[in-house]
Write a structure and sequence with these properties.
- This protein folds into two domains: about 200 residues, CV3147-like fold (3-Layer(aba) Sandwich); about 120 residues, CV3147-like.
- Helix 1 packs antiparallel against helix 2, helix 1 crosses helix 9 and helix 9 runs antiparallel to helix 10.
- The strands form two sheets. Strands 1, 2, 3, 4, 5, 6, 7, 8 and 9 form a nine-stranded mixed sheet that branches. Strands 14-13-12-11-10-16-15 form a seven-stranded antiparallel sheet.
- The protein is about 30% helix and about 30% strand.
- It has about 350 residues and is an alpha+beta fold.
- The chain contains eleven helices and 16 strands.
Length: about 350
């Protein structure tokens, strides 16, 4: 069933996407500003369910590639994603029928809504990650064995690069990361191109709706003076891992990623928490023991207002709640864990112990 997104829905979607972003995906504040302005100029984005797509329909996933820190400092020209999609259409000799959300986390959840308005295309309710991940191969399309070529990158000068053929999705990540750095650390991304039947089989369905539901719960908690951490974890089948303040942040740009570690101290003394991140939060330790690890979601929110906090916004003294939420079931298969489990991020000695339940 087709529906539209109004300006009033932008804030709850942005909040929910920030929570699901686990620290990455880009600034939802800037993304929300851009989406509201686009709605004002071009009308309301159209959203459809995956089952609404014909099996032979053609769709492509869109978003921004780059480090969250760069997205704050380097504002987009505005047409990078649309140019990338148009480049793919010219390369294939066929128009797209719909756009997909590459990752529901952070500002990248909002980018397809903007691009959909620019191109006059509907957006499918769902994504390939159920959260945010830092690398291109870390999605359900790659896990299912689908090709990520052809793919396109667009920069702020109107340049579009088409990759006609790539021998692996890891190669797609490798080459696209180098180009993104050359493009100023951020680029518009269009990939993979998939048929409607493949979308139905591989997409994590309904995550845009989930983001809005989380955001509305946070806004209601603010108005009622209740605990936003508890309402979020009730919806996502998660739990509160920690409450305290950030006392140290080591953050740096490495090969196009925001990498680092944060340290948090509880109120009133006790065991500290340490969280490693690569754009997104990866592993949380309490008193030296692992309490949550990727692909399960680890998100920071403001203690009082429930506002999600990205890794680009971490700073000393922030009072936060750390939430742990189970990953979607699609990310917990043996094949998926090879791509998005701890070992995929260099933690070969860490065994993934899933949280109870599933995100959806």
């Amino acid at each position: 069933m087709e529906r539209t997104i109004t300006s009033e829905q932008v804030e709850p979607i942005a909040i929910g996407a920030g929570v699901l972003g686990t620290g990455g995906g880009g600034s939802t504040y800037l993304g929300a500003l851009w989406l509201r302005e686009t709605i004002k100029r071009l009308g309301s984005p159209r959203v459809i369910d995956a089952d609404d797509l014909a099996d032979d329909a053609l769709a492509v996933s869109v978003g921004k590639m780059g480090a969250p820190t760069v997205s704050i400092e380097k504002l987009a020209q505005g047409d990078e994603m649309a140019n990338a999609v148009r480049g793919l259409e010219a390369h294939l000799g066929r128009r797209m029928d719909a756009l997909l959300i590459g990752e529901i986390g952070g500002s990248n959840a909002l980018m397809p809504l903007i691009c959909g308005l620019q191109l006059g295309l509907p957006i499918v309710d769902g994504d390939g990650m159920g959260r945010a991940f830092p690398e291109l191969q870390m999605d359900t399309f790659s896990i299912a064995g689908l090709d990520h070529h052809p793919m396109a990158l667009g920069d702020s000068h109107g340049n579009v690069i088409i990759f006609h053929k790539l021998d692996s999705t890891h190669r797609a990540e490798q080459y696209a990361r180098v180009l993104t750095i050359s493009m100023g650390g951020e680029a518009g991304l269009a990939m993979p191109v998939v048929m409607g039947a493949q979308v139905k089989q591989t997409l994590i369905h309904g995550t845009l709706t989930l983001a809005e539901r989380i955001g509305r719960a946070v806004l209601n908690a603010r108005r009622a003076g209740s605990d936003p951490a508890e309402v979020i974890t009730a919806i996502t089948h998660g739990r509160v891992l920690f409450r305290g303040k950030i006392v140290d942040v080591d953050r740096r740009m490495v090969q196009g990623f925001t990498r680092g570690r944060m340290r948090l101290a509880p109120f009133g003394g006790g065991a500290e928490m340490v969280i490693d991140f690569q754009n997104e939060n990866l592993i949380a330790y309490r008193d030296g023991e692992i309490v949550a690890t990727v692909p399960d979601l680890i998100s920071l929110i403001g203690l009082e207002d429930g506002e999600p906090i990205g890794t680009e916004s971490l700073r000393y003294g922030l009072r936060v709640a750390v939430l742990g939420m189970p990953a979607p079931k699609e990310l917990k298969t043996l094949r998926a864990l090879e791509v998005v489990g701890p070992a995929a991020f260099g933690y070969s000695e860490v065994l993934f112990t899933p949280m109870a339940g599933d995100l959806l």
